[in-house]
């Protein structure tokens, strides 16, 4: 990593004589997380493009800052771009902020950033708080490679389809979920990924009521179902990736050993899922196949399975 160095003054001139678009990260909860540089940028700029001007206005007041606010959200971003480009071309500095955290992560602003860059204007990040990286930092899973999937679809069928697409992802998976849907989401995850899959539910990060639940999907689901407070606030779900190297071979050998010891098919699948990270439903079907082969082709029946 590069060693930190003193950053040049935010008013450093650019080659085309225009202004600069500063992409500024703001606190996700704790006001103390606004960096000194971010405060200096917000104090310097003439205009702030904000997702919610009322919310950003209150934030600026907390720091004694004043700037002209211009709303920029998913419904008006395209129509705002020409005006903001004119401001930049006239040498005005503009800050882009979201309601909380780092702009463009499941928030508007991508089209403005692309348009400013295409116009030859300076676009510069002012990094800081981000709920996704904050959740990854406390999850305890490997985060050298991860997938961020934004907000899951609201409808049950679409959400389940998205989760099925992510179920075998070897990288750590992070996504947002609405509080009133978190229990249903966890139930889907148990069905799709198996109840033993490790997960972290990071809620209200950096706020007064911050909680970080960790455990298997089944364990976290039970805690969410009995504690209504876990179904409130802003939530980041972090799911451990599926082990890939040798997982299939390990699963087969584990299942065979368990079945030879007389462990029931359903229990063998549960134990193998916990040990290998595989999907319990898939391991159950594989255990049935192995049990049948071990009995010389006779149909195997799980003694704990009704019907």
Automatic annotation (TrEMBL):
GO terms for molecular function: rRNA (cytosine-2'-O-)-methyltransferase activity. Gene3D superfamilies: Cobalt-precorrin-4 Transmethylase, Domain 1, Methyltransferase, Cobalt-precorrin-4 Transmethylase, Domain 2. Pfam families: RsmI_C, TP_methylase. Its main location: cytoplasm. It comes from the Bacteria. Residues 247-290 form the RsmI HTH domain. It is an enzyme of class 2 (transferase). One of its GO terms (cellular component) is cytoplasm. It is found in: Cytoplasm. CDD domains: RsmI. The keyword S-adenosyl-L-methionine applies. It catalyses: cytidine(1402) in 16S rRNA + S-adenosyl-L-methionine = 2'-O-methylcytidine(1402) in 16S rRNA + S-adenosyl-L-homocysteine + H(+). Keywords: Cytoplasm, Methyltransferase, rRNA processing, S-adenosyl-L-methionine, Transferase. Residues 21-220 form the Tetrapyrrole methylase domain. Its EC number is 2.1.1.198. Catalyzes the 2'-O-methylation of the ribose of cytidine 1402 (C1402) in 16S rRNA. Belongs to the methyltransferase superfamily. RsmI family. This is Ribosomal RNA small subunit methyltransferase I.
